[in-house]
Amino acid sequence: MDRKTVLIEYIKNEIMRNRNAKLTEEEDLLSSGILDSLAILQLVAFVDEQFGIEVPDQDVVYENFNSVKALTEYLTQYPG
Predict the structure, then answer these.
(1) 40: which residues sit within 8 A by CB, 6+ positions away?
(2) Distance CA 75, CA 53 (A)
(3) Domain residue spans in the chain?
(4) pTM of the entire predicted model
(5) Among 15, 43, 63, 70, which has the minimal tally of Cβ within 10 Å of its Cβ?
(6) CA distance linking residue 65 with residue 70, whole number of Å
């Protein structure tokens, strides 16, 4: 599975707690209320555990976490 698919599945299953939820790669995760501060921390921990990528604190910003697409694009700087 590619990173985008893994992230979408994780957000749907672990954060939204609904396997059947609709989630597109471009949906604004913050404005829609899907991600709050705790969920962002969970997502950062998941990225570290799943992909072996430690996201520095200064990179935990709206631009990198506002959508699955934005997060996937941010993660492209880390090969894997």
Answers:
(1) 60, 65
(2) 8
(3) 3-75
(4) 0.92
(5) 63
(6) 6
What amino acid occupies position 13?
A: N
Rounded to the nearest 5°, which phi and psi values hold at 15?
A: -95, -50
- CB-based burial, 51-62: b 16+ in 10 Å, e otherwise: eebebeeeeeee
Record the tokens describing residue 16, joined without a space: 């939204």
- Greatest alpha-carbon span in the chain: 33
Query: Per-residue pLDDT tens for 32-41?
Result: 999 999 999 9
The half-sphere exposure of 55 on its side-chain side, counting CA atoms within 13 A, is 23
Is domain 3-75 classified as CATH 1.10.1200.10? yes
